[in-house]
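Technical note accompanying the year-one report. For the benefit of new consortium partners, we illustrate the data format agreed upon in the data management plan: each record pairs a sequence with a structure-token string. No post-processing was applied to the example shown here.
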Amino acid sequence: MPTLKIYPRIPQLLGYGGLLPMLALLFGLWHWPQLADQLVDAATLYVGAIFSFLGGLQWGLALQEDTEQLLDAEVTLRLIVGVIPSLITVCALLMPVLYGGACLITGLWLLLAFERYWRANKGLPCWYLTLRLNLTIMLSGSLAAILWLAV
């Protein structure tokens, strides 16, 4: 099966566009502080959804056709790591928002570290990690700012 060439422009537009809800929540928190509880909950939920999506990417990488070249342990590790963000998100949403937000921010960075460590498995496009780093900085920074403004 031929591999598809993915141009980085579309993922970049979608990735950076995905930050717009966080900017809207920051704007809302700045202008309507009386809605802080709802806006912080929405921000935590949104970051949790993105974090879960990033975990799902690990499943996609693990289940590619060319995984016969990888060891079973490597595929199993990616599958396990792919489930962890969803579990962390559920726990984070059940905690007080400050602790839950800290869990999500930490999780985003730990998943990025995992992706950087396993990048040699040739499952990621060359531009992915740069985009992922930029989006992680902005997403975790905006969640931290929302938590800081709300407390």
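Partners are asked to follow this layout when depositing records. The chain has one domain: 36-150.
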